[in-house]
Amino acid sequence: MNLESPKVTVSKSSAYLFEALSDIKNFEKLMPENIAKFEVIDENCFEFGLKGMPEIKLVKKTATPTSEIVLGAASSKLPFTLTAKLDEKAAEETAVQLFFEGDFNPMMAMMIKGPISKFIETLATNMVKL
């Protein structure tokens, strides 16, 4: 299952956004209002929970300076990645888009497609808060 957020333009440089997203604790600022839990495990891992959904632990997998950060599920039960792609348009203007890729059975994919789409759209929209 592959989903992508709308592209959002943020009035920050790609270097600034890359550094902000590299700091795991900043993801709390991006979370939807219905967040029930957010806990930083270490500098590369955090766990969050939204009301009515299971808690998810994300780990920073790879980072390409100023252009891409890839987070992945810490559990192999639900294998997925969340990739933030940064595209600097001007000195203080960067386009950001999130990509969700997961390997789920058709029933699970059908159940989570809506909530995950809304979740990554919220994360992208909240990039201006960084």
From TrEMBL:
SUPFAM superfamilies: Bet v1-like (SSF55961). It comes from the Bacteria. This is SRPBCC family protein.
